[in-house]
């Protein structure tokens, strides 16, 4: 039955957000050479897959909201193009990251933050849930798409040992990473060409702030200190916008990747969470010990994410029965209230996560089995921009999640997400007869019918309800009807979350 857990609807059932079959997408992107999947690639009409991307957890101004959403849409489209061409998850997630890195509005690749020396040094990593291999680069300069280097490190490591029995590297940094990339056919890019007008102006502005701060610390210019503090309050976590993506392919394989230019004005040589194993991203296919395949990509203050290994912590949490509750507890207990960050009064970070498994109740197809995907994102920063798309959607959907007014960044968190089913052949159920569903028994009966009839074509169905504040202020995990009654008893406006979000009920 439907459950409302802190405002996020979670269910093993499906409700189509859009009831129109999307047109086929062009297979036009070929920067990344896909690995050969084991399934037959001739049936592209039954393409199956899902991608969730983020353009960072930090601060996304309303004036640039359109640009952030647009780049997330393009990244989703690139990944779906690869999935429709038969590529596996690791290649699709790389394609999404390349698109995010190429945008001048993201802090990754082109347009990254400049360090103290006025140079760009990037971090990136990728993990393949099927092989559990991982590749990463840290503090690398002169490479426009560091995720390509990370992906190449991963693929080279899968080939086995080098000459004389040497172990192939999985993590390279600095000049060594740059030279290795060039020697493996990845073109270099002069650092000065990677800087944009926006990143250069931000560098000059931040450098001026540092000069004012130094004067304040030596006892000069008390008024400048006030201006500096006001500026810090205004900008907050605005420069933490690491980018990332997570993907499920038609075989149920998962992959995750992350890329970042790092903190603005960082010390040269600093390596953030985007390159660290278990901190920037994590992907792990289902196994005898794990009932779900999981993928995670993080963003935020690298030092906070490294000390808590948040990506792996969230992945482990996703093996619990209630995905939303598990993520809530992981963000609260393993991040905001982590003993490793006890000295921090403002813990900044965000994650996108998914878990998937074979949908056992679906009728098996001759070549494709249905896959149930639950996807969520959570952040303690002021905002987080995400985009998502299935291989059978006509276009990507985007959303900028924000903490509600009055919530304090670094001390509150928001969680949103949805569910989707991939694969299988289902008939659409019309909206007639669904109005007036009021009782808990009626809700259960309708959901049971959805399960039996397959009440949505393969695609994406999502529900959004933010949560912020402490766990004590969160509605209890209960049914939609009971939760609505609790709201009414508290004197708040009655709201049927399920019917307001289900297009079949409109």
TrEMBL record:
Q: Residues at site: Cleavage?
A: 241-242
Region feature Disordered, mapped onto this chain: 17-44
> What InterPro entries is this protein classified in?
Ntn_hydrolases_N (IPR029055), Peptidase_T2 (IPR000246), Taspase1 (IPR037464)
- Give a Gene Ontology cellular component term annotated to this protein: cytosol
Biased segments, Polar residues type: 28-37
This protein's UniProt keywords? Hydrolase, Protease, Zymogen
For this chain's UniProt record, which GO biological process terms are given? Answer: brain development; cartilage development; protein maturation; proteolysis
Q: GO molecular-function annotation terms?
A: threonine-type endopeptidase activity
Per its UniProt entry, which superkingdom is the organism in? Eukaryota
> Which residues participate directly in catalysis?
242
Record-stated family: Belongs to the Ntn-hydrolase family.
Describe, as the record does, how this protein assembles with itself and its partners.
Answer: Intramolecular proteolysis generates 2 subunits, alpha and beta, which reassemble through a non-covalent association to form the fully active enzyme.
- Descriptive protein name: Threonine aspartase 1
Organism annotation: Salmo trutta (Brown trout)
Q: What is the lineage of its organism?
A: Eukaryota, Metazoa, Chordata, Craniata, Vertebrata
């Amino acid at each position: 039955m439907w459950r409302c857990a802190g405002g996020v609807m979670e269910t093993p059932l499906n409700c189509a957000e859009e009831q129109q079959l999307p047109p086929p997408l062009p297979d036009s992107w070929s920067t990344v050479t896909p690995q050969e999947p084991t399934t037959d690639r001739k049936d592209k009409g039954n393409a199956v897959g899902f991608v969730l991307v983020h353009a960072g957890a930090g601060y996304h101004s309303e004036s640039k909201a359109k640009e952030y959403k647009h780049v997330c849409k393009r990244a989703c489209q690139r990944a779906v193009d690869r999935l429709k061409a038969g590529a596996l998850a690791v290649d699709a997630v790389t394609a999404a990251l390349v698109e995010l890195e190429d945008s001048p509005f993201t802090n990754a690749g082109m347009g990254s933050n400049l360090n103290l020396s006025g140079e760009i040094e990037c971090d990136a990593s990728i993990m393949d849930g099927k092989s559990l291999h991982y590749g990463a680069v840290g503090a690398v300069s002169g490479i426009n798409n560091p995720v390509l280097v990370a992906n190449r490190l991963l693929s080279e490591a899968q080939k086995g040992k080098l000459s004389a029995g040497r172990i192939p590297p999985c993590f390279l940094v600095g000049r060594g990473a740059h030279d290795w990339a060039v020697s493996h056919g990845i073109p270099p890019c002069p650092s000065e060409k990677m800087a944009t007008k926006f990143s250069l102006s931000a560098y000059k502005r931040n450098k001026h702030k540092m000069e004012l701060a130094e004067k304040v610390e030596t006892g000069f210019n008390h008024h400048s200190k006030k201006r500096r503090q006001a500026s810090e309050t205004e900008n907050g976590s605005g420069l933490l916008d690491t980018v990332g993506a997570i993907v499920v392919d038609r075989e149920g394989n998962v992959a995750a990747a992350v890329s970042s230019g790092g903190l603005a004005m960082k010390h040269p040589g600093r390596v953030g969470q985007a390159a660290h194993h278990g901190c920037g991203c994590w992907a792990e296919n289902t196994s005898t010990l794990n009932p779900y395949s999981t993928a995670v990509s993080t963003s935020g203050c690298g030092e906070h994410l490294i000390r808590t290994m948040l990506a792996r912590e969230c992945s482990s949490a996703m093996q619990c029965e209630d995905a939303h509750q598990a993520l809530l507890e992981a963000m609260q207990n393993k991040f905001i209230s982590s003993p490793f960050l006890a000295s921090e009064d403002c813990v900044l970070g965000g994650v996108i996560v998914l878990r998937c498994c074979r949908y056992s109740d679906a009728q098996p197809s001759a070549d494709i089995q249905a896959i149930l995907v639950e996807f969520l994102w959570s952040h303690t920063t002021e905002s987080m921009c995400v985009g998502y798309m299935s291989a059978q959607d006509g276009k990507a959907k985007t959303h900028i999640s924000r903490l509600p007014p009055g919530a304090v960044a670094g001390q509150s968190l928001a969680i949103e997400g949805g569910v989707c089913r991939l694969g299988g052949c289902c008939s659409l159920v019309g909206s007639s007869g669904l109005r007036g569903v009021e009782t808990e028994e009626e809700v259960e009966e309708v959901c049971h019918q959805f399960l039996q009839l397959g009440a949505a074509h393969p695609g994406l169905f999502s529900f959004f309800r933010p949560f912020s504040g402490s766990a004590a202020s969160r509605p209890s995990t209960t049914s939609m009807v009971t939760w609505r009654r609790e709201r009414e008893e508290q004197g708040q406006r009655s709201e049927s979350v399920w019917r307001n979000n289900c297009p079949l009920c409109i």
